[in-house]
Amino acid sequence: MAIFLDENSRIIVQGITGAEGTKHTQRMLKAGAKIVGGVNARKAGQELDFTEFSPEAVLTVYGTVTEAMDKTGANVSVAFVPPKFTKDAVIEAVDAGIELLVVITEGIPVHDTAEFWAYAQSKGNKTRIVGPNCPGVISPGRSNAGIIPADITGAGPIGLVSKSGTLTYQMMYELRDIGFSTAVGIGGDPVIGTTHIDALEAFEADPETKAIVMIGEIGGDAEERAAAYIKEHVTKPVVGYVAGFTAPEGKTMGHAGAIVSGSSGTAQAKKEALEAAGVAVGKTPSETARLMREIYQKL
Questions:
Q1: Which residues of the chain carry a pLDDT beneath 50?
Q2: Do residues 171 and 215 touch, judged by C-beta distance below 8 A?
Q3: Strand ranges, E, within the chain
């Protein structure tokens, strides 16, 4: 089993003809993802030859997401669209009714993200948005929608949800001997689609996911809210890591969401909230992986 993405997912790439869209389409195909087409209104009708990366992967570029879905049966889109065009691309995908939309783009104005997220909600939340500014979703050995390297781990029983792309990769590598059902990089912007809680709920419901790693970071209260959810609703063991224990006090850090106000939003405050909910929290990624390994061996 996997959450959000599996071997039956049919993926289109919005922005497939751009440098990043092309490069990561190649990587996704090599990982076994079923990419069935691309979208670029200015290059509609072109055919792109990716057969070097996957047999029969000659992909048509469509003018709209709706057309791409009608012609290919796509149910997932990965957006590699420049920031100033991303809001329109997301709204187009939502209007088309795509089931899963992974927004890789970083640098999107917060008011644009807030607007397209509110728009998706107004349409009944039929489209699950992951991101923006995220590495995407991977179900190892089954499918890959985004930029997560596919060769650093294999399939297994651990679920991973993370704000940080780099720490997603490190945790997958650290626990490669056990493997993952799905890894979800939710992004670190102040406004995001899928949250820690959304992923925790899905992993809890997935019979093949036996344990969960949750990676957060300083700033905001997402981790505290996730801790409260875990305490009430999650029966599977959860191991956590909060990036930012060594962050200098009062300094603005890299991720746009990492804004600390007083003692609220600090790594220590988040650690305490998670531990109060029964989550084992590591102070480094390697320690977090060790904690998960110890817990898994007892399952």
A1: 256-257
A2: yes
A3: 10-14, 34-39, 47-49, 58-62, 76-79, 100-103, 128-130, 136-139, 143-146, 155-162, 180-185, 211-217, 238-243, 280-282
Q: Is the dihedral of CA 109, 112, 118, 121 positive or negative?
A: negative
pLDDT of res. 256: 47
In sequence order, what are the residues at sequence separation of 6 or more whose Cβ sits closer than 8 angstroms to the Cβ of residue 262? none
Radius of gyration from C-alpha coordinates of the chain: 19
Phi-psi region of 97 (alpha: psi -120 to 50; beta: other; left: phi over 0): left
Which pLDDT belongs to residue 249? 61
d(CA 249, CA 209) in angstroms, rounded, equals 37
The catalytically annotated residue of 24, 196, 233, 255 is 255
Q: Does 83 sit behind a cis peptide bond, omega within 30 degrees of 0 on the bond before it?
A: no
What are the chain's domains?
10-130 (3.40.50.720), 152-298 (3.40.50.261)
Strands, sheet with 100-103, edge to edge from the N-terminal-most edge strand: 47-49, 58-62, 34-39, 10-14, 76-79, 100-103, 128-130
Amino acid at 38: G
- For residue 233, indicate whether it is catalytic: no
Integer distance in angstroms from the first to the last C-alpha of the chain? 18
User: Of 159, 152, 35, which Cα lies nearest the Cα of 102?
Assistant: 35
Amino acid at 288: T
Is residue 167 within 8 Å of residue 241, measured between CB atoms? yes
Asked if 155 and 140 count as a contact pair (C-beta separation under 8 A), the reply is yes
Amino acid at 130: V
Query: What is the model's pTM?
Result: 0.95
